[in-house]
Amino acid sequence: MAEQVITAINALYRSDNSSIKNDADRWLDRWQSSPEAWTVANAILHDPSSEQEYSYFCAQTLKTKVQRDFEELPPEAVPQLRDSLLQLLLRFGKGTPSVRTQLCLAMAALAAHLPAAQWGEGGVLRWLMERFSGQDPAVAMSCMLELLTVLPQEADSRKISCRPERRAAFQAELRAAIPDALNLLTSCLSQTGETVRSQVSESLGCWLKLSGGAGLPAGFASSPLVAAALDGLSVEGTFHAAVDAVSCTSELVGVQMPAVPSIFIWPNTRQLCPSYPTAR
Asked: How far is residue 226's CA from residue 246's CA, in Å, rounded to a whole number?
């Protein structure tokens, strides 16, 4: 089956014949909907000889299967899937961001299906932190920053086919993990570079939106995370992510944390003015 999948992917991406491409697309769509797609996609991803096109397509397939076909899996297969996704993240943590993103989305979808108790104390975020601890720092950083972004983003995703009560529980579990998430993001600020700073600000904005202002630590408005987002307004490479984080913080300052003076935010947001034409 793996050879058939690879042949179809080659036809889809490399054939000059539109009829062949359309046939391959239809065949792959049927295959992705089949129960066999779980094991075949996983096997291709773990094959070190797989080309990037095959890996990306299969990572996307696994993500979609976790999102919409999770109930196909027998209970004993779920821990195996979780461990497999972790190993794949460690493998694709450097050099292949498109594959890594699909795997992170798959892990986030798995967290939406699995109650926190099945991840152990502290839920999915603590489980991930423990598993990436001691790994290659560059791989751990890239994976954790993306996971810290997609987890809150996927909290209300309708692409994930889970029951409403489970979706509400997942959101509550992530809100309970906000202190851990903020601490981890703060530790990432020790790394230099615009890319890391931009990812931290993007993730911060996602967690703030999820929080709605609840569960934030005392003195959050004067935290290093907010300071880093404000500093990011004056740097082109971090500007867009910083705008989102500062906007969320400003809203929380004005609505949820009235004791914090707005003057803390306003002088820095004035920097938006000279950069605005670029943002458009």
From this structure: 7
Lowest mean pLDDT: which of 130-144, 154-168, 198-212, 232-246?
232-246
pTM: 0.89
Burial class (CB within 10 angstroms; exposed 0-12, middle 13-18, buried 19+) of 88: buried
Q: Which residues fall within 8 angstroms of residue 77, CB to CB, at 6 or more apart? A: 38
As a whole number, the mean pLDDT across the chain is 90
Long-range CB pairs of 44-51, under 8 A, 24+ apart, other chains included: 44/2, 44/5, 44/6, 45/88, 46/84, 46/87, 46/88, 46/91, 47/2
Q: Do 156 and 209 contact (CB within 8 A), yes or no? A: no
**Cβ neighbours around 60 below 10 Å, total:** 19
